[in-house]
# Entry
Amino acid sequence: MFDEITLHNRLGQGVRLQVKKVSYASRLCIFVYTLKQSVSSIVAKNAEFFASQLLNYFELQPGQFDLIELRRRDTEMEWLRWRFRLVGLTAFDARSRKVVSIAQQASLLRLSGLAGADLKQKFIPRRASGGRYCRYRDDNAFILQSRGRQI
# Structure
């Protein structure tokens, strides 16, 4: 389950984010998304500020976590993995990379616990990877499917 927390953006204003911390292997994965859709990403504009505050909020050691942003764009979801150069608990030089691999997206979906969750956004059928995989929304469930099997 995601928790709603308020972090401060670069202007000092409070921003409500949905956040979830998950352990995997020897690292921690922090999933972040906003309920408010905007033209540009709130996380992208404030990535360094949010990363530093999340380190303090979850009492993490620098270099111990991955920040994963979930973006909703109309009818599709995007996963972005954020990387930072950390000096103490301060994050610098934020860079994001879109997760394009269907297998990685499926792993992130499982880790985040969003399979079967309501993201307050309707998703409609969309074909990807030459029609082999289909993402769809079905009665409050977001499922990645491969050849009729749930991933």
Observations:
- The chain is about 15% helix and 45% strand.
- The beta strands are 3-8, 14-24, 27-33, 65-73, 76-87, 90-98, 126-128, 133-137, 142-146, 149-150.
